[in-house]
Every structure is written in C-alpha cells, then in structure tokens.
Amino acid sequence: MIQNLPSSDAPLKIGTRGSPLALAQAHETRDRLARAFDLPPEAFGIVVIRTTGDDRALIAADRPLKEIGGKGLFTKEIEEALLSGAIDIAVHSMKDMPVEQPAGLVLDCHLPREDVRDAFVTLDGRAFGDLPPGAVIGSSSLRRRAQVLFRRPDLKVVEFRGNVQTRMRKLADGVADATFLACAGLNRLGMDDVIRTPVDPSDMLPAIAQGAIGIERRSADNRAAALLEAIHHTPTGLRLAAERAFLAALDGSCETPIAGLASLERGTVWLAGEILRPDGSESLSDGGSAPVEDAAELGHSLAAALLERAGPGFFDWRG
User: Fold this and answer.
1) Per-residue pLDDT reduced to its tens digit, 31-57
2) Pure H helices in the chain
C-alpha cells in the first residue's frame, strides 16, 4: 500500500517541456498513473518548464544542435526542478536523454514503446528512392543526415529544426523537398494527415531509444518509485538497457551519428547497431544477442566491436 497517494488537494507534479509532443507524453504518463491507482486527472499537475535549449533553438534555428550545446540543454532546467522539489517526476523522450543522470536522480521507468521507425515525409507522397538527384532533405539529426548521404550522396541535406508542426510548415514553404520524422511522435500527436512512408529498420536503423518515454525521479523518493513501478514496462526497459549501453560505450552525443535497435524474443535480447562517419562516406554495422539479464553487456560488447573496426578518428568531420 502506497502512503499519501496524490490528490486534487496535493497533486503529483509532473515536469515537462512545453512542445505539443512533450505535453502529449506528459498527459500519457498522467493518464496511466490515474488508471493504475483509480485517481482523477486532478490528482496530477502538469508543470511546463522552459529549458535553455528551447531558448537557444529559437535564437539559432538555422544552426545544428551540436553548435548550440547538445542534448543536455533540453533537460538541465527540468532536472534542476526535480532536484529542488519543484516537481515530483519528469517526463522525457528517451532518444533525447543523456546516458548519465545527475547525482540524486534516477531514470528507471519506461512506458510501452511506440513505433520505432522513422517516417519519410513529403508533401506529394514520393518515396525516398524516387527523389531526383540534387533534391533537398531537411534534417537536424546527424544520424539521419549521415544515413541519407551514405545511401544517396547525390542528395543535399540542410538544417531543419523545430517541432513537428514547425517542420511541416518549412516543407510547405519549400525549405526542403522532404524530411524525416519519428513515427512515434506523429502517432502520439494524432497527425494521421501527414503523408509519410515508414522506413523499415532493416533499411535505416532508428535513433537509440526512439519511440520510448522515460520518467525520471529523485533516487530517494520512495513514493514516486512505488507509483512509477506500477506503470513501468519491463520489455521496453530491457531493450533500452542494451541500446543505451551501446550508446554510452560509443560516447554517443549529438555530434556522433549512431543508430541502434534492440528486440526481445523468448528471454533473448537482439541488438543491431550502426555507426557512420558524419559526412556519410562510410557506415559500419553489426549485431548480436544475449540473455536478457546481459542486455547492457551486449550493448557494450557490440560497441567495442564496431570501435575496433572503425579505428581512431572515425567520427571526425572530413573536409
């Protein structure tokens, strides 16, 4: 029995960024907690926190993410609010999360994973292979940029940041002929009207942890731990253990094109991984399997094998 369940008089404060997708993820978290404990929505409060990354992204909308500070810029203020007690839990897109959390925080709750695939998006429904030479792809992801140029060096890739709605406006304005979005984000936003072609992971591996929501808490907060345990999806957690260990061993960041996807089958975790040169001139991939209890070790070993093949300087920019 959990002591002091949230109530409308003393709601559990859920911290999130303010984008439509971030809010959809916070509402999904709230709704799952409400169902798990038969509580009204008013027992939970959504607290929107503006991050340094949000401000810098607005000011430098045409600059790559790595130039304005990287992934941690979108979590710093939220984690500070969590540590100070201003919020009780924080909801994150796992593909945006650094592999290490600040002292005093833990990220051990994951919701059931959505569609992991990338979506290739054009206004006229053209497929990736139908684009003419010189066509422009808009993307802020170094992974997608490198994967596109490795497969189609005849295409041009331009910086293309912003939330889903912003990117769709940029397509309509002719900034690019096509872009990639995460199927999970489109699904969570109910954007069925967006014309897209899901990309099979066998053709293009997604970002590490794509489609997964993680919920962060203070490590000493036993009440939050008990609440979140009720909605944690163990299979997603096991898959992410392998993928994020792979990323951590590669020292992955927004400056390194890395892709990976884990799957589960009868007590075994399978992991496929890919690393690319930032200019798309070379791609190395590998895969392996292990018992689920060794998911993290599988991620580390696969990363080590790829790094050995890559040699020093693989992730350095050429030119």
Assistant:
1) 999 999 999 999 999 999 998 766 654
2) 20-37, 52-59, 65-68, 76-84, 142-151, 164-172, 183-188, 222-229, 234-249, 295-310
* Residue reference for tokens 């992410």: 240
Distance of alpha carbon 42 from alpha carbon 66, whole angstroms: 39
CATH value at residue 271: 3.30.160.40
Residues 6+ apart with CB under 8 A from 156: 134, 135, 136, 137
Answer positive or negative: Cα dihedral of 255, 256, 257, 259: negative
Q: What is the pTM of this model?
A: 0.91
pLDDT digits (tens, 9 = 90+) for 174-222: 999 999 999 999 999 999 888 889 999 999 999 999 999 999 999 999 9
- Name the residue range of residue 122's domain: 118-199
Could you tell me if 181 and 256 lie in one domain?
A: no
Write out the catalytic residue numbers.
Answer: 96
Give the integer Cα–Cα distance in Å for 228 and 217.
Answer: 9
Token couple for 36: 């798990």
